[in-house]
Amino acid sequence: MAEYIIIYHGHGQPESKEAGEAARGRWMKWMQDLGENIINFGTPFKGGTILSADGSTRAGGLSGYSIVKADDMDAAMEIAKACPHLEVGEVEVAELMKGMG
After folding, report:
1. Does the structure show a pLDDT above 90 at 10?
2. What is d(CA 85, CA 68) in angstroms, rounded to the nearest whole number?
3. Phi and psi for 56 in degrees, rounded to 5?
4. How far apart are CA 98 and CA 100, in angstroms?
5. CA dist., res. 7 & res. 51, Å (int)
6. How far, in Å, CA of 7 to CA of 42, rounded?
7. How many CB atoms lie within 10 A of CB 7?
8. What are phi and psi of 30, to 5 degrees?
9. Which pLDDT tens digit goes with each residue over 59-91?
10. How far apart are CA 4 and CA 83, in angstroms?
C-alpha cells in the first residue's frame, strides 16, 4: 500500500461548545473507521504565511494534515471524501514519494 497525505485547506470554528464537541466526535469516528489505514493523525496548523522569492508574503490557507495508507489514489480519495474537514474547507490528497531521504 502507498502512503498519502491529506492536506486540509480553509478554517472554520464551531459556533458553540456543543458544536465543537460534535465536530470532535465526527473526527474521532472518521479516524476510528480508518483503523490501520491511518498512519499519522497529523496536527492542525495555526495561521500560516506564504513567502515568495521576491520577499512578498500573503496569508496561507493550510490548516492541517493527516497521513493514510491506501491501495491507490482512488482509494485515498474515498478516504478523503469521508473526512469531516469538508464541512468547513477543502482537502488535497497527494501520494508520498518513497526513497527521497
Report:
1. no
2. 15
3. -75, 155
4. 6
5. 19
6. 9
7. 19
8. -60, -45
9. 888 999 999 999 999 999 999 999 999 998 999
10. 14
Instruction: Using the structure block, give the residue that is written with the C-alpha cell 496536527.
Output: 43
Domain borders along the chain are: 2-95
What is the pTM (predicted TM-score) of this model? 0.86
| Gap between the Cα atoms of 3 and 93, Å rounded | 10
Q: What whole-number distance in Å separates Cα of residue 16 and Cα of residue 59?
A: 26
Q: Which amino acid is it at 30? A: W
Q: Rounded to 5 degrees, what are φ and ψ at 98? A: -95, 155
Cα gap 4→12, rounded to integer Å: 24
**What is the assigned CATH class of domain 2-95?**
alpha beta
Could you give the C-alpha distances from 17 to 13, 24, 45, in angstroms and in order?
A: 10, 11, 20
- For 19, 21, 31, 79, the CA distances from 28, given in Å and listed in that order, are 14, 11, 5, 14
